[in-house]
Design a protein that fits this description.
By secondary structure, this protein is an alpha/beta fold. The chain contains eight helices and five strands. Strands 2-1-3-4-5 form a five-stranded parallel beta sheet, sandwiched between helices. Helix 5 links the parallel strand 1 and strand 2.
Length: 236
């Protein structure tokens, strides 16, 4: 074998190694279009406003409606069968026991439950993300007024700091509650909830999370974050 042939074979071996490494590091999601009733010529991008239902969700909805056609066939067990089946699966999604999962009408309902069960003293503060989704704002605005506390909206730093660091700097002895998400709903800015949770516990502040924008798409471990309350919209 000539020197050029040996060199060429060496290049092929290296290129194959690099190709294999690139495949292993490729985190792109494969096409999921087959899960939806979308024609080949349609490319739908406006999922932030109204995402199309997967075919499986459509079928589940149709099956649920079909039960109501003959309601006399339903038994008392039928009212709880689906939630009992889903509760362990949802628990695994956030690394929690099934007994910790409750079904509620909406995220704002769950946050209202949190607000009714957390202590806030006059003069304390409730920290929120600036431009936070309204369902995670209104209840805290009411609670602050009722308890003579204050709302503090944490802005994203222009430069030099992460959003997490801005929150950590704001948490102190007078912080009663930190109510936020894992990411900001407008641009996906990420918060380190483990660090924020630790800082909350250091000062006796409660951590309330709305994970509607991230749960299921991002890894979350309730055992590490240790929030006091967590709510998530199932439609996401």
């Amino acid at each position: 074998m000539s020197e050029n042939a040996e060199h060429k074979g060496h290049n092929i071996h290296i290129n194959n190694e690099r190709r294999d490494e690139a495949r292993q590091n490729d985190t792109r999601l494969a096409s999921q279009k087959h899960h939806f009733d979308i024609a080949d010529e349609i490319i739908y991008l406006n999922c932030a406003t109204m995402g199309p239902l997967p075919v499986s969700a459509q079928r589940a909805g149709e099956q649920g409606l079909a039960r109501k056609v003959h309601p006399w066939t339903l038994t008392s067990e039928d009212f709880f069968a689906d939630t009992d089946r889903l509760r362990p699966k949802l628990g695994r999604l956030i690394h929690s026991d099934a007994q910790n999962i409750a079904f509620i009408p909406s995220v704002s309902y769950g946050l209202a439950i949190a607000a009714q069960n957390l202590q806030v003293r006059p003069g304390q503060s409730i920290l929120l993300m600036a431009d936070q989704f309204p369902s995670n704002v209104y209840i805290w605005n009411k609670l602050a007024k009722d308890k003579q506390a204050s709302l503090k909206f944490i802005d994203k730093p222009a430069s030099g700091k992460t959003y997490t660091e801005a929150f950590l700097d704001a948490i102190g002895p007078e912080t009663a509650i930190v109510a936020c998400g894992h990411i900001h709903w407008t641009d996906g800015t990420l918060l380190d909830l483990v660090d924020i949770g630790q800082k909350c516990r250091q000062f006796g502040a409660s951590l309330v999370l709305d994970l509607t924008q991230s749960c299921g798409a991002m890894s979350f471990d309730v055992r590490e974050v240790k929030p006091d309350f967590m709510a998530c919209g199932a439609y996401k």
